[in-house]
Design brief:
This protein is of the alpha/beta class and 919 residues long. It is built from 29 helices and 32 strands. The structure holds glutamic acid (GLU). Glutamic acid binds next to helix 21 and strand 29.
Length: 919
């Protein structure tokens, strides 16, 4: 018996070997094996991937070549499916890949079952039966994966939304999770109501306290369900979903990815898989195709069909068979069908859906699912689940969020609204006709371009024609300007000198500030006053000058008096006469004045005090003058070179007080105006009242304000950065006073925009890298006439003195000379008059003779024609005492008259004159 059994098994093995060898020999002859595909006419991707799978399989198969027999069917039409399948069977197919809709698939399976033809099922199928091989992971295993995920996420109680009864087998595992005493699991079925929506059931979910929801249903209905979840208002950061469908990645999730809703699910096919990407590229015909961040067009069905073809191709290498034509109308079946099925189940190959391995029931085992989560940059893998090892979560570190977010802006196109305000946004000055973004330049334009290239987004600039940035109407509660454009979605981003205010923050979101500033006053620079003619008088105050004059006079008088009192000052006029009858005193009143003035001007005189009292007065006067003159000299340089400047206003208080009758204003509806409107400080309130009562001083743009400052007696409240820009170009204008507040400019966007953090981070980076500082230098100091006024700053060196500084000195000299000339002429006339009188000669005669002599302009000797010269002599002089005419003392003293010039008659004359005058 034993021997017979062994011999039987041995003969079976031998038979097997012979049959495989024969089959190999059979396949070598290059026969073509037909494989059938029934696909829904709406799913053309299926046919493409099927063909691609056949091509790829043939490339690596030298034994046999597969050929696709494909037939499109109307979705859901089972009768048509049966007919087309029967037709297909006549073309000797060795296996059929079936439709994906339930009813046609069920019909196809039963026909294949009757004909014992392998049916390759790629659907989510709950009942596997021979001769079917189902490549899809079985729902019961998916249920385990879902249960593991819910446990991993730590949910305590949740709602299950399931589509139809057949999904209950998945839900079963979840219902068993907590047992009877655990947290509550609510089960709700979602199905279209009479209005064709799910909203009723979704509203009930909203009213419940459950924020954790498991959705189990078909991929066809999922997009509509998600969109209605959003409409009902339960698709936000409070809710978390687990989606129990492996095709989650094939639907467009963009509408939900920025709302911070937490969606987790599974996928069998990874779009990041190299092989998948290659297949998709070849199907799409686009080498650049990438599906990492958008919905992936490769459904599980398609991927499984691809893998199924590879599995079948592999099987054909080893199983001996001869394809036969089958007829639906007879009872014939294909006896090799089960052999093929069994062989496929025993094979294990690696496909694009992972390892293809089956248990003896034909269910997939040892497969692996990616756990995916929806982030603002699309679906991302956070871990894996495998039927053998369960969960392993490898969530990406959170600090990578910048990279992730970065990607979320990639290839997005933003409408950026800006205003034509120098230097943030300006029209290019070029004769060429420019279009689109090329028309504009400026700091704001550069900043957006910089962010665009950093974060990979595109942008289109739009101009706010009325230059209104946006303010809230307190009565209507409505916004205007750029802020309104952003709120109403006509623009995505707003950039200009847009100040971040608390009001605006209530309507839009801002990035971190890219520039800091404060309010200041723009006004004309203080004008330099021209030097005064008598600026040489400035070193001393008027008081000092007055006292100096009095001191001069007082000292002269005291010298005169002390000179007369002091015996030492009385001299013998004729030293040759030992006992003089008269004595002379050098300190006549005139000489006293002359001595003091000589000392004052540091020139000295030939008068030397001899008496102790006069010497003491002389000394203290010299001391006084030396100090006074040194002080004057020291102060003079400063007064001649320092220019005095004057401005009617020095600060905001002066403006509010109306000093210099300076009018003022700010940009209408701008943040500067709002600042005064909301201020509590009395000065600012006064300024606001003025602006409110005088709307004619308010402007539409900054440029208008600047023009008014230039042309009128007007001050403009402006932001310091804009003032910096203006004073670089308009040298007559400057900032008055210090900053009134501190704030910043930011990029505005819609409230709760997901781009805020990414943009803020990028701005921070640009700040740290010095890019923003460089851009500011470019637009403030270099471009468009920048730097025009910078040379003004460097002229603090001493400048040369001009006529305006020293004119007064020349004037004094000139007036002094004129005065001297007048006095000279008067003296001359008087001397002629007195000579004529003395000599009893007509005035005319003496005048003619004197005039002739003067006009000769030569000769230093003069003949004495009229001896009785009393006062006109220029060569000698005498004192006549108090009577008669006061003498003028020349620099030549009486002592120094050379002896040869003396004659007795003259001495006699002097004597007689003296006596006469003292009678
Ligand atoms: N930056 C201001 C704003 O955002 C405009 C200019 C101003 O008011 O001084 O409204």
């Amino acid at each position: 018996m034993e021997c017979r059994k062994d011999c039987h098994s041995l003969s079976l093995i031998l038979l097997g070997i012979i049959s495989i060898t024969t089959s190999m020999l059979l396949q070598v002859d290059g026969q073509t094996i037909n494989v059938g595909l029934l696909y829904e006419s709406t799913n053309s991707g299926m046919e493409k991937i099927f063909q691609k799978a056949i091509d790829d399989a043939n490339e690596s198969n030298e034994i046999s070549q597969l050929s696709a027999v494909t037939t499109a069917i109307t979705p859901g039409n089972a009768f048509e499916t049966s007919k087309k399948l029967c037709k297909m069977l006549r073309s000797s197919v060795i296996a059929v890949f079936g439709p994906s809709t339930t009813l046609p698939a069920a019909h196809a399976i039963s026909i294949c079952d009757a004909k014992e033809l392998p049916f390759m099922d790629t659907r989510w199928d709950f009942s596997v039966q021979l001769p079917t091989i189902n490549l899809h992971p079985h729902p019961t295993q998916l249920a385990v994966a879902l249960r593991d995920l819910v446990i991993t996420l730590g949910w305590r109680g949740f709602t299950i939304l399931y589509e139809t009864g057949e999904y209950l087998s998945i839900v079963n595992e979840l219902l068993k999770l907590y047992g009877t005493n655990g947290p509550v699991v609510t089960l709700r079925r979602y199905e279209l109501d009479i209005n064709g929506d799910y909203r009723n059931v979704l509203r009930r979910v909203k009213k419940s306290d459950d924020f954790s929801i498991v959705v189990v249903g078909s991929i066809e209905t999922l997009p509509e369900l998600l969109s209605q979840l959003l409409q009902v208002g339960i698709m936000n950061d409070e809710y978390r979903y687990v989606i129990g469908n492996l095709d989650l990645q094939t639907i467009d999730l963009e509408p939900y990815q920025y709302g911070d809703v937490n969606i987790t699910g599974f996928r069998l096919v990874s779009p990041e898989n190299q092989r998948v990407m290659e297949i998709l590229k070849s199907l799409d015909g686009n080498e650049e195709a990438s599906f990492q961040n958008v919905s992936c067009p490769m459904s599980v069905n398609m991927a499984l069909a691809y893998d199924g073809v590879q599995l079948l191709a592999e099987t054909t290498k080893y199983v001996n068979f001869r394809p036969v034509q089958l007829n639906c109308n007879d009872n014939e079946s294909w006896e090799k069908g089960f052999t093929l099925i069994n062989y496929m189940k025993s094979l294990s190959i690696s496909g694009i859906t992972g390892e293809l391995k089956f248990d003896n029931q034909g269910l997939r085992t040892d497969f692996q699912l990616d756990t995916i989560e929806l982030t603002s940059s699309g679906l991302s893998k956070i871990g894996t689940w495998s039927s053998s090892q369960g969960f392993s979560i490898n969530r990406k570190p959170i600090q990578n969020s910048f990279e992730v977010d970065n990607r979320s802006l990639v290839n997005k196109t933003f409408v950026v609204i800006t205003a034509l305000t120098d230097p943030y946004g300006m029209l290019k000055e070029t004769p060429a006709k420019l279009e689109g973004n090329d028309r504009f330049e400026g700091f704001g334009i550069d900043l957006i371009a910089e962010l665009g290239s950093k974060l990979g987004f595109n942008f289109v600039f739009k101009i706010q024609e009325d230059s209104k940035y946006g303010s809230l109407d307190p009565v209507t509660g409505k916004w205007n300007g750029m802020i309104l454009e952003i709120i109403e979605g006509r623009a995505d981003l707003g950039i200009t000198d847009l100040t971040m205010t608390s009001d605006r923050e209530s309507g839009v979101d801002f990035t971190i500030p890219f520039m800091n500033l404060g309010i200041a006053i723009l006004y004309k620079k203080p004008v330099t006053e021209p030097p005064k003619l008598f600026s040489f008088m400035l070193p001393f105050s008027g008081e000092v000058w007055l006292l100096l004059g009095l001191a001069y006079f007082g000292v002269s008088v005291s010298l005169f008096v002390l000179g007369r009192l002091s015996a030492a000052e009385w001299d013998n006029p004729y030293p040759c006469i030992e006992d003089p009858t008269v004595l002379t005193n050098q300190f006549s009143f005139a000489n006293s004045l002359w001595f003091t003035v000589g000392a004052l001007f540091q020139q000295g005189s030939e008068i030397a005090p001899k008496g102790l009292s006069t010497r003491v007065v002389g000394s203290v006067w010299w001391f006084f003058t030396i100090i006074l003159v040194s002080s004057y000299t020291a102060n003079l340089a400063a007064f001649l070179t320092v220019e005095s400047v004057s401005s009617p206003i020095e600060n905001v208080e002066d403006l509010a007080a109306g000093k210099g009758n300076v009018k003022y204003g700010a940009k209408r509806g701008g943040s500067t105006f709002t600042f005064f409107q909301e201020a509590n400080y009395p000065t600012y309130q006064k300024i606001y009242e003025f602006m409110k009562d005088n709307p004619q001083y308010m402007t539409t743009t900054n440029n208008e304000g600047v023009e008014r400052v230039e042309k009128e007696n007007y001050a403009f409240f402006m932001e310091s950065t804009s003032i910096e820009y203006v004073v670089e170009r308009k040298c007559t204008l400057g900032q008055v006073g210090s900053l009134l507040d501190e704030k910043g400019y930011g990029i505005a966007m819609r409230k709760n925009s997901p781009y805020r953090d990414v943009l803020s981070l990028a701005i921070l980076e640009l700040q740290e890298q010095g890019v923003l500082a460089k851009m500011k230098t470019k637009w403030w100091k270099e471009k468009r006439g920048g730097g025009a006024c910078s040379q003004d700053d460097g002229n603090s060196q001493a400048s040369e003195l001009g006529m305006p500084n020293l004119g007064g000195v020349f004037f004094v000299l000139f007036v002094g000379c004129i005065l001297a000339s007048l006095i000279g002429v008067c003296e001359w006339i008087l001397s002629i008059y007195f000579t004529a009188q003395e000599n009893k000669v007509p005035f005319k005669i003496v005048f003619r003779d004197e005039f002739k002599f003067v006009m000769q302009c030569s000769g230093n000797t003069k003949a004495v024609k009229y001896p009785k010269i009393s006062r006109s002599s220029s060569s000698s002089e005498c004192s006549y005492g108090s009577s008669g005419f006061k003498s003028k003392r020349s620099s030549e003293s009486i002592d120094s008259i050379p002896m040869e010039n003396w004659d007795d008659s003259r001495v006699h004359n002097y004597h007689s004159e003296y006596e006469k005058s003292h009678k």
